[in-house]
Amino acid sequence: MSPATILLVEDKDSLRLMLRHALEAQGHAVVEARDEPEALTALRQSRPAVVLTDLRLPMGDGLGVLRGVKDLDPDLPVVVMTAFGGIEDAVAAMKAGALDFLAKPVDLDHLALLIERALAHRRMATEYFLLKEAMAERQGAPRIIGDDPRLRQVTEQLHRAAATSTTVLLEGESGTGKELFARALHLISPRADGPFVAINCAAIPETLLESELFGYEKGAFTGATARKPGRFELAHRGTLFLDEIGELPLALQAKILRALEERTFERVGGTVPLQVDVRVVAATNRNLRAWVAAKRFREDLYFRLSVFPITIPPLRERRGDIPMLATHFAERFCRELSKPAVSFSAEALDELCAYRWPGNVRELQNCVERAMILCDGQTITPRHLNLQSRLATAAALDPWDQVDLTGTLAEGVRRATAEVERRMVLSALREARGNRTQAADVLQVTVKVLQQKLKEHGLVDTN
After folding, report:
1. What is the pLDDT of residues 178-224, one digit of tens each?
2. What angle do CA 454, 460, 463 make, to 5 degrees?
3. What is each CA distance from 383 to 156, 236, 333, 347, 370, in whole angstroms?
């Protein structure tokens, strides 16, 4: 576990040195301040877990430090120190929001007890908020199931990235399990003891997304009756997972970029810069390069996010993992539904492996869950899967049915290549909204080559 940071506010050098040594001996990191102005500056810069402050200071006082703490973060615990005979001042401080008080001369054993109590209070406040946010989520550590070489390559990349604090971009189709990989990355990283905070950028209205990410101050807008911390704050010393990052509105992308580069931000309605130590993992099912070319995503933010890109293969490209995944889901649903163990018939496994799974692992999971509910025995058969209609639809829409495969191998390859070129050119032009320069950038060819392809495939008027 990473050491907790304690902000120690004490003007007497000898006492401050003694307290620092005692706190460091307990395994904590200590940031020092001698008066209220220094304390408030250190508070914003160091983001401590606990504040230990004397009430009597040469500039300002401990109550001023306490007010500054509560203005910044109402849940940040404060322990005040007071000389013998200053109990009334200590009581006043506790009424103003201090968690506890420590009488001088300081008993170091008592100090250790109060600090541990304050840290436990801090952890409980953060965990309560996160549990409230994720109350409906299923619990359990993520497991990455499969032996496919491409999946093993992804796992190796995760381990390489986990050892650093670099930003990671997870790319892949919907349903491939990008959040699962993000959680796994967090758990094998040095930040595993910190929070994992996730937000789906596509699921929250644009007008609310900024306040969800950065929090807001009381009175910032109608309905803001109290200060609320944002996801960046909640993820301090942990990992922030930004799912569907491609859906971020352009106006908010600039603020995200600043938060990534400077590790600072302001709450909505706030003026005080807040510093955070957050590792960002982003995910998208979009072609962000195409969106950059189409001016729908900031290029500087794209490069900042894609420091370490990882592409998760779709399920249809690792069909050998389908039986293993299906068995894993069946075992899990047996436990959840309190049903005896089941197995898949050979015919059921054949159908599972034949289907293309456009919804990827998520669709497979839903299919197995439905089959478990329908199955009254101990063997799942094709009728429980109900894949025949979907297989028929997929067969009817098989793109290879539209390709002329007659003639020699060279002729068939030439026709197939031409069709792929035509479709890719049209797709790039759609993404770039007709801008040929941007479309060429997406395809990574020159504008001259793009114009040549347009003529070859009859996509422009050659007169």
Report:
1. 999 999 999 889 898 889 999 999 888 888 899 999 988 888 888 88
2. 125
3. 38, 49, 18, 10, 11
**What pLDDT, in 10s, does the model give residues 334-348?**
988 888 899 999 999
Q: How confident is the model at residue 245 (pLDDT cuts 50, 70, 90)?
A: very high
Number of structural domains found in the chain: 4
Residues 56 and 129 in one domain: yes
Report the alpha-carbon distance of residue 450 to residue 437 in Å, rounded.
9
Alpha-carbon Rg of the chain, whole angstroms? Answer: 29
Where are the alpha helices (H) located in 134-271, listed in sequence order?
A: 149-162, 178-187, 206-214, 231-234, 250-262
In this structure, are residues 238 and 197 in contact, taking their beta carbons and an 8 Å threshold? yes
379 and 432, same domain (yes or no): no
In a domain, 143, yes or no: no
Q: What does each C-alpha distance from 45 to 86, 262, 264, 265 come to in angstroms?
A: 30, 12, 9, 12
Q: What is the DSSP string of 338-373?
A: T----EE-HHHHHHHHHS--TTHHHHHHHHHHHHHH
pLDDT at residue number 463: 37
Number of C-beta neighbours around residue 130 at 10 A? 17
Task: Give yes or no: residues 191 and 260 share one domain.
Answer: yes
In angstroms, the CA 449 to CA 427 distance is: 16
Q: Which residue has the tokens 């250190």?
A: 42
CATH of the domain at 344: 1.10.8.60
Verify cis geometry, omega within 30 degrees of 0, for the bond prior to 105: yes
Domain of 383 in residue numbering reads as 316-396
